Amino acid sequence: HTPVCSLCACSKMRMAPAMMLWLAVCLCGTWAVDKSNFKTCDQSAFCKRQRALKPGESPYRALLETMELTNTRLTLQLINDKNKVRLLLELYRLQGNMTRVKINELKPLKPRFEVPDVLIKEPTTEPMSLLSQDENGVVLSLGVESQRVILSARPFRLDIVEGREVLMSLNSRGLLAFEHLRIRKDTFSYKVTSTVASVWDNVKRVFSSQADPEAEKKDDADPADQAEPEQTAKEDEKDEEGMWEETFKNFVDSKPNGPTAISLDFSLPGVEHVYGIPEHADTAKLKTTENGDPYRLHNMDVYKYELYSPMALYGSVPFIVAHNAQRTTGIFWLNAAETWVDISSNTAGKTVFGKMLDFVQGSSEKPQTDVRWISESGIIDAFILLGPTPKDLFTQYASLTGTQSFPPIASLGYHQSRWNYNDQEDVQAVDAGFDEHDIPYDYIWLDIEHTDGKRYFSWDPHKFSSPKEMLQGLKDKKRKLVAIVDPHIKIESSYKLHDEIHARDLYVKNKDGGNYEGWCWPGSTGYPDFTNPEMRALWVRMFAYDQYEGSMDNLHVWNDMNEPSVFNGPEITMIKDAKHGEWEHRDVHNLYGLYVQMATADGLIQRSGGVERPFVLARSFFAGSQRYGAVWTGDNIAEWDHLKISLPMCLSMSLAGIVFCGSDIGGFFNAPGTELLVRWYQASSFMPFFRSHAHMDTPRREPWLHGLDNTRLIRDIVRQRYTFLPFWYQQFYHSHKTGEPIMRMLWLDYPKETATFAIDDEFLIGKDLLVHPVTDEGATSVTAYLPGKDEVWFDIHTFKKHNGGQSLYIPVTISSIPVFQRGGSIIPKKLRVRRSSACMEHDPYTLYVALSNQKTAEGEIYIDDGYTFNYEKKEFIHRRISLANNVISSINLAPDAHFTTPSWIERIVIIGATKPSKVTLKAAGGLESQLDFEFDPSVSVLTLRKPGVNAGEDWTITLK
């Protein structure tokens, strides 16, 4: 959450007077984002500088005589003909139909930052072979069918082709740029002393050689002559404003290393639709940026963010997905510095009529999207994922950054939160309210006010004097609590955590070497250097039960403000010239939130002796954050448009691997009307993370505070979520194993169906449920697109059958949320809803079987203990349930696994069925029996009652 907008509220937070004044001046009375607090591209010196470069012939050429090719790696020098600086290109063919391109300075003055800890391992390489070479370039085989890399020398360009089709081109628009490290000219002019005079003489001698008209020939003639450092670049390069120092408002970025920006363009022939690069409050399909700012990736605490904007938000994943009816590809730009992404398209300006005219007249113009990445520092490290199918793409990306962590099943239930529940009695009253109104929940949350003066890992001694008693009360009901632990530490000599971090010198430093201090909720604040493994290890130990006093095993954690948020910093975050060991904050900025969540998750795992799976929510994230927990869409507003935008925001995150996503139900700021609140509950109940959360200045909004009718509506919504928990859990297991999204755009499962490509107001859960939330005020109908011309879809409430490949008009009331089950699927549910997910652990299953046009269906059941890592030891049940030729069967998908469950199959509901004459069950051991059944001809639903078979055993049911 962001700073409050009330001096009254501020006064409750024990803040220093200066802090209160700052909050009052900067934030009070602000009802939307103050865009002046955040840079545009023109205000970001490196973005403005790079964007001033227009497409044209690249100054870079490849020095083919420097090429070295091993079995799996090509290296080659590139030279910039304008400044004679040389770069080193590395090209790798990776296992799984991927290509990696790295570009760095050949001889940098000092090492440039390369992102650690994001890749789960060094990618496995595969052989490349040289097909041809001449003075114009080389052709390499990528080993997959007819895939090749064509490297053109003058100007430098890479094309990845398959057969005669170009899949992707690099530097085809000539926008490769690499600002080399150099010595500042005024350093040469005014700061040279006698102790370095000989060095200066050498540098002048090198500059003289650059003026020699034969120098370039000498360079080309002798590739080994590369000993000179990169400050040998021509002196006629002009320094531009912001290259060596940059000011934004009153903040000065000293830029001790000077300009270090990098840029590269990628062209995608045949592509009109690109997605990804979260987090932005925008449509899932990315828009062209030619007439405005590029999309920005720079993790920041944005107050009441603006919708349909390329502005940066809390998290950044530099992964873009391109799709057309023939292929799905991706680009992963592994860089953690501030990054801007420009998107252009040759079809963007065309009207529908213009496109129709092209079709009628037989236009030969092929659509193309161009993507340009601009980062402030680091190196170019780009992974090209060649699909070709969506499933292949997610497998490829998961092989690089990992899959979504497998969460405890309780975290898939309902979460009740606000900033803040007042005290232990308030927590107990809210907990009792859920029981009184027969509404299940799994987690209640505590925000920053539960701590002792904003000292994390502590409890307010007056309001939360007996935290274990409170936790035990929840545990007795099989419920849990989440407490906030933020990464800004109160600077106070009596605070144990601060004292230890300070004593061990583990705070982020300022440019002068002292501890960096900023303002956040505690007042004067230190920021732990989470890039340091020693700091992460200290943080991990803080979660031990003997360190985090009052904690128990049913206490889980969320990390807010981990961008990091610095109230008095530039753009409400950390100054870029702060230091993390040898690296500047500018190099690692977008990694900070990932490291915080990583250390927190590791802390919860280690406190349990490595037994229990953690639940950790974080606001800030980067590529790979999916390995550590969940995220949410941040500080949204109680407005209909914010409800609408939550869908494409989470769909975009899911495409980029961040699967466990949700939004604050009802909006964090302001007070939702009852209709908006009910609609938000409906939409969120079919999103992976299901939490209500609100600002401290908003009226209380527990589910029973909005009138009897609305209480009933919300109760039904939450209870419905709990019936689907077995399905959600199976989907998370599948995603954990494969990397496939759970909440997903329709085109992922219907990749050739162009009508699905831009749809982001409805979504699939796995491949079997289609959800179209109602997101318009006063809506009496929605129009949902049902994909798949050969598919059938069944309304889960009425069982009415609809054909796929059509837009369906659907009347709605306030109790409606249109959800459809795909014909040909089987979904497991538990219909005995209890107070929490743990109370339902051993309850029986009901199988919902929706028949395809071919009268077949298939689904899965996954069962384990719900919270430990024992599934990694093969302690689980994984079975396929299928119906074909009038026989339903349960088949073991993991014969080497071992786990038992008392859960049994209570009911099987077959939708789209015909009435049988009899139904025979054959259970494990060969025992046969007749089953009772009911058939409703009005909806063609057959219900088989009490098969009574164990959910983990083999069985068959024959319909005759």
TrEMBL record:
<dbReference type="Pfam" id="PF21365">
    <property type="entry name" value="Glyco_hydro_31_3rd"/>
</dbReference>
<dbReference type="InterPro" id="IPR013780">
    <property type="entry name" value="Glyco_hydro_b"/>
</dbReference>
<protein>
    <recommendedName>
        <fullName>Neutral alpha-glucosidase AB</fullName>
        <ecNumber>3.2.1.207</ecNumber>
    </recommendedName>
</protein>
<feature type="domain" description="Glycoside hydrolase family 31 N-terminal">
    <location>
        <begin position="90"/>
        <end position="342"/>
    </location>
</feature>
<keyword id="KW-0256">Endoplasmic reticulum</keyword>
<dbReference type="InterPro" id="IPR048395">
    <property type="entry name" value="Glyco_hydro_31_C"/>
</dbReference>
<dbReference type="GO" id="GO:0033919">
    <property type="term" value="F:glucan 1,3-alpha-glucosidase activity"/>
</dbReference>
<keyword id="KW-0378">Hydrolase</keyword>
<keyword id="KW-0325">Glycoprotein</keyword>
<dbReference type="InterPro" id="IPR017853">
    <property type="entry name" value="GH"/>
</dbReference>
<keyword id="KW-0326">Glycosidase</keyword>
<dbReference type="InterPro" id="IPR025887">
    <property type="entry name" value="Glyco_hydro_31_N_dom"/>
</dbReference>
<feature type="region of interest" description="Disordered">
    <location>
        <begin position="209"/>
        <end position="242"/>
    </location>
</feature>
<keyword id="KW-0333">Golgi apparatus</keyword>
<comment type="pathway">
    <text>Glycan metabolism; N-glycan metabolism.</text>
</comment>
<dbReference type="GO" id="GO:0030246">
    <property type="term" value="F:carbohydrate binding"/>
</dbReference>
<feature type="domain" description="Glycoside hydrolase family 31 TIM barrel">
    <location>
        <begin position="406"/>
        <end position="730"/>
    </location>
</feature>
<dbReference type="GO" id="GO:0006491">
    <property type="term" value="P:N-glycan processing"/>
</dbReference>
<dbReference type="InterPro" id="IPR000322">
    <property type="entry name" value="Glyco_hydro_31_TIM"/>
</dbReference>
<feature type="signal peptide">
    <location>
        <begin position="1"/>
        <end position="32"/>
    </location>
</feature>
<dbReference type="GO" id="GO:0017177">
    <property type="term" value="C:glucosidase II complex"/>
</dbReference>
<feature type="domain" description="Glycosyl hydrolase family 31 C-terminal">
    <location>
        <begin position="739"/>
        <end position="827"/>
    </location>
</feature>
<keyword id="KW-0732">Signal</keyword>
<dbReference type="Pfam" id="PF13802">
    <property type="entry name" value="Gal_mutarotas_2"/>
</dbReference>
<dbReference type="Pfam" id="PF01055">
    <property type="entry name" value="Glyco_hydro_31_2nd"/>
</dbReference>
<comment type="similarity">
    <text>Belongs to the glycosyl hydrolase 31 family.</text>
</comment>
<dbReference type="GO" id="GO:0005794">
    <property type="term" value="C:Golgi apparatus"/>
</dbReference>
<dbReference type="GO" id="GO:0005975">
    <property type="term" value="P:carbohydrate metabolic process"/>
</dbReference>
<dbReference type="GO" id="GO:0106407">
    <property type="term" value="F:Glc2Man9GlcNAc2 oligosaccharide glucosidase activity"/>
</dbReference>
<dbReference type="InterPro" id="IPR011013">
    <property type="entry name" value="Gal_mutarotase_sf_dom"/>
</dbReference>
